[in-house]
Design a protein that fits this description.
Order of helices and strands of chain B: HHHHHHHHHEEHEEH
Oligomer: heterodimer
Shape of chain A: elongated
CATH superfamily of the largest domain in chain A: P-loop containing nucleotide triphosphate hydrolases
CATH architecture of the largest domain in chain A: 3-Layer(aba) Sandwich
Number of strands of chain B: 4
Structural class of chain B: alpha+beta
Radius of gyration of chain B: 22 Å
Helix content of chain A: 25-40%
CATH class of the largest domain in chain A: Alpha Beta
Strand order of the largest sheet of chain A: 7-8-9-4-10-11
Bound molecules: adenosine-5'-diphosphate, magnesium ion
Number of helices of chain A: 11
Shape of chain B: globular
Largest interface: A-B, 38 and 35 residues
Strand content of chain A: 25-35%
Chain lengths: 315, 315
């Protein structure tokens, strides 16, 4: 497994406040990895350490296989970064800014001439590139932020809340853009406080709260691992012990209770087992009136995780 | 992914370019240039107007340009320093634009050196144009000029003197991350020295101490050369770091002369007497002021560089 980002025991404090605590994060190459957590969770702090804007108090980290300590421009050559609500020099024109940044990446004139209009078009700033950045709206600066993060065709793109401050249409566009970026074999690591955003874009997610990493895995595994066993309610015409016993014997059923005409069946699996259950009940001579499956959404998993980690701490 | 070989030159020039575009578009900088040219024009035109008014023709002075230089005094140098570098480090912290800059593949040392070099180029161009303007104007007003070939020496001295103030502004800016504190702090130092220096210089036995602080230094005269004022028997000399340009010219014109230091016995009045203190060769006076200026420049730049290199991006 090749890692684009790996942190080991990463800790960052602001005075007495521990913003990031013993973070062990692994981001696999060629994934879109979401960094999810409520406001103040420590996402921006972690990212600032990763890009060299802050020095960690404890721990080490590797970016693209290279251990980073101090000021390492050569690592930054291979990555792109968009700060949370980025600010660019007002007195430069959009294209000038990208041109100068491009020079810092060592891009030749030809590369710049090819790449910059392509990026401006991609982020929807075409036609406004001759305006001074000082005249750009927040959303336009945000788009410029994405463009400058992609300038050097980076292997790793780190985006800190890329859709923050955008209007709904802009948000959708940016999400599409991120999926597009990842298609070219890059790793994207993006922070967000919006679960549905991560769910929509990302293949993997790391959830952080109060500086602590709660879980990091593929989206699928996270919802499987964390959701409570699904339960199924089956309403039958005339419930009997025979039916209850029969259903209990199924290997993927952990518990069956009876509530009036309803059988409440707790499952050990997240697979769709409605067919097997209805078959079993029918075999036992019962008639099924209705059947419903209740599964936990990722939203509930997230809320549950965050609440649990908050409750677990003395304040 | 493209693999790039990055030479330090590419990155360095990119930073210089970034900085220069900023400098030449600064409103403050343009304002100071306009004021400087207005003052230069005034200083050339006023004597002409006055002599016309009293009906006398202005006497020719073949040494006007070389003895005046561009006429940029202590205050002028201080102002140029302020407008050129007041924002160059602290301003980027304040606006947040330092974040995208420092996450490009340029080291902080490179960014620092690039900013410094851009300040030098900006200053050099502004001063060079002023010098040429004064040389042409002086020739028109005072007739053909002697020793114009010494002007580059004067330009060099003026830049060295100004760089002392640039280093002070940068150091306070890098430490405080505030442009306002950088400007006000430097202004405070400038004012304190400007007010105290002449008083100490004229009335104290211990005026030598002024040779080791930035500013106008102490005062003496070169005996035997035709005096400009009736108060001192020779051409007046100031020995401070602000006077390197003037003393370079003096040295070129009177290489083996001595400087006599004096103090005044009382405030301006009847019983006022000039008391000779000691004598030094002009070359010593000049070398010392250059060494002191370089020491301050080096020291303050080292502080700025160190503060900049260690700064964490908290905003
Ligand atoms: N410059 C700072 N000084 C002091 N505390 C800070 C600073 N920046 C962030 N914090 C605190 O650190 C914690 C994590 O913040 P941050 O990393 O910005 O979270 P997120 O990006 O997940 O919203 C928060 O409690 C925040 O108040
Ligand atoms: Mg944040």
């Amino acid at each position: 497994m090749k890692l684009a980002i790996e942190t080991i025991g990463l800790t960052k404090r602001y005075g007495s406040l521990t913003a990031v605590s013993k973070l062990n994060l692994k981001v696999e190459k060629n994934t879109i990895h979401g960094f999810l957590g409520p406001n103040g969770a420590g996402k921006t702090t972690t990212i600032k350490v990763l890009v060299g804007l802050l020095k960690p108090d404890e721990g080490t980290f590797k970016v693209l296989g290279q251990e980073v300590h101090g000021d390492m421009p050569d690592v930054r050559l291979r990555m792109g970064y968009m700060p949370e609500l980025p600010k660019f020099p007002k007195h430069l024109r959009g294209w000038e800014l990208l041109d100068i940044y491009g020079r810092m990446y060592g891009m030749t004139k030809q590369e710049r001439v090819e790449q910059i209009p392509k990026l401006l078009d991609m982020v929807g700033l075409k036609g406004r590139e001759k305006d001074f950045v000082g005249k750009y709206s927040k959303g336009m600066q945000q788009r410029l932020g994405i463009a400058q993060a992609l300038l050097n065709e980076p292997e790793l793109v780190i985006l800190d809340e890329p859709s923050l401050g955008l209007d709904p249409v802009g948000m959708v566009e940016v999400r599409e853009l991120i999926k597009e970026i990842a298609k070219e074999g890059r790793t994207v690591f993006l922070s967000s406080h919006l679960l549905f955003e991560v769910e929509q874009i990302c293949s993997h997610v790391a959830i952080i709260n109060r500086g602590e990493l709660l879980i990091s895995d593929s989206i699928q595994n996270v919802s499987n691992k964390l959701s409570k066993p699904s339960t199924m309610q089956v309403e039958v015409a005339k419930p009997s012990n025979k039916v209850v016993e029969a259903v209990k014997k199924l290997s993927f059923v952990s518990e069956v209770t009876q509530d009036g005409n309803k059988l409440i069946i707790e499952l050990k699996t997240h697979d769709d087992v409605r067919a097997q259950i209805s078959q079993e009940i029918t075999k036992a001579g019962e008639v099924i009136v209705s059947m419903s499956l209740k599964e936990q959404t990722l939203e509930e998993v997230f809320m549950q995780l965050v609440t649990k980690s908050q409750g677990g701490r003395a304040e | 992914m493209r693999k790039r070989e990055l030479s330090w030159k590419t990155r360095f020039w990119a930073v210089v370019r970034y900085e220069l575009l900023w400098n030449i578009r600064k409103k403050k900088f343009l304002g100071v240039i306009v004021v400087a040219f207005a003052l230069a024009t005034l200083s050339l035109a006023l004597p002409v107007l006055l002599s016309n008014m009293i009906g006398q023709s202005l006497s020719q002075n073949p040494n006007y340009v070389v003895s005046t230089g561009a006429g940029i005094g202590g205050l002028g140098m201080f102002l140029f320093a302020i407008v050129i570098v007041m924002n160059s480090i602290s301003g980027e912290f304040e606006s947040g634009t330092i974040v995208p800059l420092l996450t490009k593949p340029v080291s902080r040392t490179m960014v620092f050196l690039g900013k410094l070099f851009a300040a030098l180029i900006t200053l050099l161009s502004a001063y060079a144009v002023l010098f040429i303007y004064m040389a042409v104007g002086g020739t028109i007003v005072y007739g053909l000029q002697n020793n114009l070939h010494l002007l580059p020496l004067s330009l060099f001295g003026t830049i060295l003197s100004t760089f002392l103030w640039i280093a002070v502004v940068l150091a306070i800016g890098a430490l405080s991350k505030s442009s306002l504190i950088a400007a006000l702090g430097t202004f405070g130092i400038f004012i304190a020295l400007t007010i105290s220096s002449p008083i100490i210089s004229i009335f104290s036995d211990q005026a030598w101490i002024l040779n080791y602080v930035p500013g106008g230094g102490t005062t003496g005269y070169i005996a035997g050369v035709k005096p400009q004022t009736p108060y001192v028997p020779g051409i007046a000399i100031s020995t401070g770091t602000d006077n390197i340009a003037a003393n370079l010219i003096n040295y070129a014109l009177y290489p083996s002369s001595n400087v006599t230091f004096f103090k005044m016995s009382a405030l301006i009045g009847q019983s006022q007497q000039l008391i000779e203190l000691y004598t030094e060769s002009l070359s010593i006076v000049l070398l010392r002021s250059i060494a002191v200026a370089l020491a301050y420049i080096f020291g303050f730049l080292l502080i700025s560089w160190y503060a900049f290199k260690r700064a964490q991006m908290l905003e």
